[in-house]
Amino acid sequence: MDSTSPTTNADPLIAWPAVAVPGQGTPSARTPQPEAPSPEAGTSRSSAADSPGDRHTESAGTEHGPRSEPGPRSPDSGDGPRTGLSKSGDRQAPDSGNTLVGGAETGDRDDGPQETAAGTGPRSAESTVPGPRPALGTAAGPGTVEPGLGTERAGTVAPADGSGTGDREGTSPRRSGDGATVLDELRAAIDRYVVLPSEEALTAVTLWVAATHIQSALQHAPRLAVVGPTKGCGKSRLLDVLHETVHSPMMTVNTSPAVIFRVIGKNPPTLLVDEADTIFGPKAGDKEDLRGLLNAGHQRNRPAWRISGPEQKPTSFPTFAMAALAGIGDLPDTIMDRAVVLRMQKRKPGERITPFRSRYSVPELNAVRDRLATWLTPLRETAAGLVPHMPVEDRAADTWEPLVTVADLADSHWPTQARAACLAMTRSEVLQDEQTTLKTRLLRDIRRVFDTAGTEVLRTQDLLAALVQDAEGPWAEHGTNGLNAYHLGNLLRDFGISSANHRFDNGRQAKAYTRNSFLDAWARYCPEPVDPTPGRQPRRTAPPSPTGRLPIGPPGGPAGPTRAR
């Protein structure tokens, strides 16, 4: 027996695993594992009972001097093979009182009981070995296999069922319900640093952040429009939080289309654009290229083509990437239409948040981000095949589908919560659009004028006078001297509505608009709200009977409102 051979004992039942021997490589087979012996019998073994392939030989150069004997096995060590590592994963040298970590002597150490996934107690052999990680295939770190645990690689066990990386419980959320737990943690973290306008908005931001981690599986990349009426509403602070939680963030305060073309690839970053009002504001100049790129990037397979390279060849640049844009005032309508919109407000005196400080906020948020990625990255193929039921249609469904998909993957309360947020925020934006979009606002105001007048025909001048007199409307300041007949005709032309000559009761003809010509536009762009109460029909206002009479007799006689030839 040489100095590197393990000591012997009368107990022939302990089978030591095969390890790497310098010049011989790693044996290709391991002996079957016998039943675990008692702790007293684990200090030595018989060399006569061991086959040559079972001899445990320490690698030369790993330790110098006489080899330290491994300590006794713990009663709860299980049936797994012994590799010279103690229950805590460290090599023990009882004679010297020192601990060998990965083959290096570290001095006296008493870690005491270590916390494991199952509770408090000695750290199991499948946990990560502390200290420097030895190279694979060396005696200091031979990977061992235990039933149900998978393979050990450089000190980290990859479970055989593919459910994680062997980290402690809570860092590899893959089981049912763990996704909901991670989303709850993310939601709470965002809520600590930012005051959002509603609970639905907080839900939307949480799901949007999570969706960035499955961009490669999505068909649409929703924008996040963070807008506010003034400074100090928390827009930039929200971007700070997003920067530490989204997938591959790219923060910028001003950029050009050429830069965006070149940073977006097969694994696109998450664009975070602050001070967007300086890009799209009235003093920003021509930014149509950037606006077109952001619009095209909402849907996959909408590349931008440019002449590029020394050979001046047409080159396709992908545009698909999720983006969050923050600024004062609304963004261009085409971007808002493709975005989940957050209308930020200043905090009230009683609303408190946690100050954002990099020294403790960034590690906290990065930890949540890592747990989020660990959960969602293996589910990308699953997400690509999901077709969630959407409570909205058309572009609103395109924008919200990635968020609802994440909620369905998480299960628990998130699917219901996500769809409720989708309905509430979409309806809010429809109402906001009706109140702010000039043409839609004009249709709504004209309907109000017709209802107030109680007539089917209005002279153009009477309609203009009623619109301009509205103190809350924008029509008195429209143009140089307020809304006039020419501007009114231009605004209504896109709806297929125009004025015509009409003859009234006094026999005079004048340009006028009829109620019937607005019915189609009202139904499409500003429909009346439907009463959701079951059994009740939506309120309808019966149109009054037209005044006047049908023309009887020679021209010039009394007649009703008929179209003049």
Automatic annotation (TrEMBL):
InterPro entries listed in its UniProt record: DUF3631, P-loop_NTPase
Residues annotated as domain DUF3631: 343-525
Region span, Disordered: 1-179, 528-565
Residue ranges with Polar residues bias: 1-10
Composition skew (Basic and acidic residues), residue ranges: 166-177
Bias (Pro residues): 541-558
Highest taxon listed in the record's lineage: Bacteria
Name of protein: DUF3631 domain-containing protein
Organism of provenance: Streptomyces griseoviridis
